[in-house]
Design a protein that fits this description.
This protein is an alpha/beta fold and 204 residues long. Helix content is 32%, strand content 23%. The protein is globular, with a radius of gyration of 16 Å.
Length: 204
């Protein structure tokens, strides 16, 4: 594995959303093993390999167990006590953590913990696409839709902070299409919501 120079994307932070209770799965998706590591650790490692900093993981349900699995010193952990209110509360907590502690961050990538084929190359492509296109938002595309991981420049931080309930970043992507560039994410449609999803993943 090629480990990129840490900090090469040092004005781009990553928020990894890992607060849900995996109710449809019946098990903690964050800690499901795949290719020798947990799903969450995979995303953390890819973010670190891309050179992004800071890396912030948002926990909520089962916070103690999820946090105990994270030993990477490059990761900041924020426990979102409002996780039951929906995904927006985690996004808000992550944006606040990064902007409050890291004034130099100009871009933030939002990622989730259950896309097993996310890669450092994809994170880098989002950043490079933003630099080349000048668009303030860059989203991943898969299965005829746009979604996470998605990069937001600082002019969109206030919109992210205004999300509520189950609203995710897709609301902003859909309402600001002229500001959004995209990069393809092969197999990005694969995420783990049910036991069947996980079984299918293990059989790929």
């Amino acid at each position: 594995m090629i480990v990129h120079q840490y900090g090469r994307m040092n004005n781009t932070g990553i928020v990894i959303l890992a607060a849900g209770d995996s109710s449809r799965l019946g098990n903690m998706k964050q800690l499901l093993p795949f290719n020798g590591k947990t799903l969450l650790q995979h995303v953390i490692d890819e973010a670190a390999d891309a050179g992004a900093q800071p890396i912030v993981v948002i926990t909520g349900a089962n916070a103690n167990r999820v946090e105990a699995s994270i030993t990477d010193s490059r990761v900041s952990i924020v426990e979102n006590g409002n996780w039951k209110e929906g995904m927006a509360s985690g996004i808000v907590a992550g944006i606040r953590q990064i902007t409050g502690q890291n004034k130099g961050v100009k871009k933030i990538i939002l990622a989730v913990c259950d896309q097993p084929f996310v890669s450092s190359a994809l994170f880098e492509q989002l950043d490079e696409k933003q630099n080349k296109s000048g668009k303030p938002v860059v989203a991943s595309t898969y299965a005829d839709t746009v979604g996470t991981p998605a990069l937001f420049s600082m002019e969109f931080f206030d919109q992210l902070l205004s999300l509520t309930g189950d609203e995710g970043a897709k609301k902003i992507l859909k309402s600001n299409t002229s500001d959004v560039a995209t990069v393809p994410f092969p197999r990005g449609e694969i995420d783990i919501d049910t036991q069947k999803d996980y079984e299918n993943l293990l059989n790929t």
